[in-house]
């Protein structure tokens, strides 16, 4: 396969210490970045540098290390803001991950804005983290959940917007890119439609922000949630972006240190955003390392990363199309589609597929990928998923195809 | 990892013994593994405190289905009291593949035993992390 990739993938691979290892005697083919990406040396070094050289709690410390840590932590916030085109770095709230970011909106914005009979519009392709928090707040407030259906190719049935997006809809929460199908959703159009009926739009960017240029001003959404660990940063650090007006009207999420102005015995006043939503000591080194990961990805270029994955996906669609007994779920073209895909192999359970591939040094994921409603829709209990990132090569697609043929043969 | 898929496992997975349902079972119990969607239902016919017939039904990975096939072979003719204390080590011996360092697949392998125990003790569902069995 000729490649049009604008960066040197082999050079990038050398930046990732983990990829230099052998697994069961084979070179590691890591095809599970949709679950969590690997980390380049630059990010690992940055994290280590914080813990070795200037580890200290942020804010209020007047000694050198604390000032240095605070400066680096807040600089990382600025990097995140620029990376996603936020109007101000005050709109960036550090969370643990996408899940916590969505729960924060549900428990604060949701608790104060949802009334009995109000409707929340989701889709059938949401990750559990963009379903369960809404179920929880719906049960508390009496709000009702609606779901956009998907068609046979795994795309949203947009015609349903006419009937499911109404004046009663107060919030639309939608994934930008499906973690199981790879489908990229037209969030900009849906945000416009949501605003037209007065609803607020939250975008789950866990699978899009690491893989393509994402600009909140262009998307026109109101909230964006994503995780650091899927974009070369450590675990334990995620982001909620929200429009400042919305954030300022929201009550606190967790109570504790850092989120207050004045604490009296029976009441407190709360800090301004974003501190109001960052109770307790945050993941300081991890946030700084997220900033470093953003520098790393930006130097490669998000558009180039997206193109690289589209090329790998195009090759995968072609190559895996020749594997007998393979059923692919999701779009069969690279049109509005990212580099993650799920499949079943006739006669072989997804768990066995993954175990046999592991034996050849190929890391994929098997299970329901936190999308049980979507698996029920396709009437399969589980699938195997492969996903790409900057360090993947076409030859890894070949190894995957050969591995699948081997699994088929073993179970024939 | 290929040693997971030894001939015995593949044979039992492809052609499971005692597969299906009993007409009037004395005990019928299903357990599932929410992590991977595997399901195993075990049905027993009991006469004079002896398991006289057994069937299983399920869907899942080769390990979970082969394990159920092997376990049901073993249960035929076994006193209920013996089945109640059938140990997981005994089942792992029957399966004959190294799983102790592979906790995820261990859950697959022990799903049938979990269904058996929960059925015999009349428990709705055993806790997911209940590895005592």
Automatic annotation (TrEMBL), chain A:
Designated name of the protein: Cysteine desulfurase
Highest rank taxon of the organism: Bacteria
Obligatory cofactor(s): pyridoxal 5'-phosphate
InterPro entries per record: Aminotrans_V_dom, Aminotrans_V_PyrdxlP_BS, Cys_dSase_SufS, PyrdxlP-dep_Trfase, PyrdxlP-dep_Trfase_major, PyrdxlP-dep_Trfase_small
EC number: 2.8.1.7
Record's keyword terms, sorted: Pyridoxal phosphate, Transferase
Function: Catalyzes the removal of elemental sulfur and selenium atoms from L-cysteine, L-cystine, L-selenocysteine, and L-selenocystine to produce L-alanine.
Domain Aminotransferase class V span(s) in chain numbering: 30-400
PANTHER family with a match to the protein in the record: CYSTEINE DESULFURASE, CYSTEINE DESULFURASE 1, CHLOROPLASTIC
Gene3D superfamilies given in the database record: Aspartate Aminotransferase, domain 1, Type I PLP-dependent aspartate aminotransferase-like (Major domain)
UniProt key word Transferase: yes
Family of the protein in this entry: Belongs to the class-V pyridoxal-phosphate-dependent aminotransferase family. Csd subfamily.
Keyword Transferase: yes
Catalytic activity: (sulfur carrier)-H + L-cysteine = (sulfur carrier)-SH + L-alanine
Natural source organism: Candidatus Chloroploca mongolica
From TrEMBL, chain B:
NIF system FeS cluster assembly NifU N-terminal domain: residues covered: 5-121
Residues spanning the signal sequence: none
Entries under CDD domains matching the protein: IscU_like
SUPFAM superfamilies per the UniProt record, alphabetical: SufE/NifU
Family annotation (InterPro entries): NIF_FeS_clus_asmbl_NifU_N
Pfam families: NifU_N (PF01592)
Organism field: Candidatus Chloroploca mongolica
Annotated protein name in UniProt: SUF system NifU family Fe-S cluster assembly protein
């Amino acid at each position: 396969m000729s490649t049009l990739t604008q960066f040197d993938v082999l050079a990038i691979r050398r930046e990732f210490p983990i990829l230099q290892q052998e697994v069961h005697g084979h070179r590691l083919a890591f095809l599970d970045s949709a679950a969590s990406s690997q980390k380049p040396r630059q990010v690992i070094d940055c994290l280590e540098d914080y813990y070795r050289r200037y580890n200290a709690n942020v804010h209020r410390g007047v000694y050198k290390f604390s000032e240095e840590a605070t400066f680096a932590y807040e600089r990382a916030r600025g990097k995140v803001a620029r990376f996603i085109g936020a109007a101000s770095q005050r709109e960036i709230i550090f969370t643990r991950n996408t899940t916590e970011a969505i729960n924060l909106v549900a428990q604060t914005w949701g608790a104060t804005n949802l009334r009995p009979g109000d409707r929340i519009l989701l889709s059938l392709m949401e990750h559990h983290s963009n379903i369960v928090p809404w179920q929880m707040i719906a049960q508390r407030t009496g709000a009702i959940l609606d779901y956009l259906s998907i068609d046979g190719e795994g795309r949203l049935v947009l015609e349903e917007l006419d009937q499911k997006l109404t004046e009663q809809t107060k919030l639309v929460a939608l994934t930008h890119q499906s973690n199981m199908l790879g489908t990229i959703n037209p969030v900009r159009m849906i945000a416009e439609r949501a605003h037209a009926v007065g609803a607020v739009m939250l975008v789950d960017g866990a699978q899009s922000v690491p893989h393509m240029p994402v600009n909140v001003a262009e998307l026109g959404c109101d909230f964006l949630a994503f995780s650091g660990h899927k974009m070369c940063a450590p675990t334990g650090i995620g982001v909620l972006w929200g429009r400042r007006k919305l954030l300022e009207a929201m009550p606190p999420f967790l109570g504790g240190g850092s989120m207050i102005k004045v604490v009296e015995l029976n009441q407190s006043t709360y800090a301004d955003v974003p501190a109001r939503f960052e109770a307790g000591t945050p993941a300081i080194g991890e946030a700084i390392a997220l900033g470093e990961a953003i520098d790393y990805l930006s130097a490669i270029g998000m558009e180039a990363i997206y193109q690289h994955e589209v090329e790998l996906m195009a090759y995968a669609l072609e190559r895996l199309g020749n594997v007998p007994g393979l059923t692919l779920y999701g779009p069969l073209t690279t049109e509005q589609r990212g580099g993650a895909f799920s499949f079943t192999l006739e006669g072989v359970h997804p768990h066995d597929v993954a175990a046999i591939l592991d034996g050849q040094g190929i890391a994929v994921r098997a299970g329901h990928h936190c999308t049980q409603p979507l698996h029920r829709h396709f009437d399969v209990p589980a699938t195997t998923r492969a996903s790409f990132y900057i360090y993947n090569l076409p030859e890894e697609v070949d190894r995957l195809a050969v591995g699948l043929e081997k699994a088929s043969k073993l179970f024939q | 990892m290929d040693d997971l898929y030894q001939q015995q496992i593949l044979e039992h997975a492809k052609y499971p013994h005692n597969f299906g349902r009993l007409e009037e079972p004395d005990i019928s119990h299903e357990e599932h593994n929410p992590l991977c969607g595997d399901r195993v239902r075990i049905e027993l016919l009991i006469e004079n405190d002896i398991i006289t017939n057994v069937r299983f039904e399920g869907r899942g990975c080769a390990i979970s289905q082969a394990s159920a096939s092997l376990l049901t072979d073993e249960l035929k003719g076994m006193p209920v009291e013996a089945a109640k204390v059938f140990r997981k080590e005994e089942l792992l011996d029957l399966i004959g593949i190294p799983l102790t360092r592979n906790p995820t697949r261990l859950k697959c392998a022990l799903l049938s035993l979990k269904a058996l125990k929960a059925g015999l003790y009349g428990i709705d569902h055993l806790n997911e992390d209940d590895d005592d069995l």
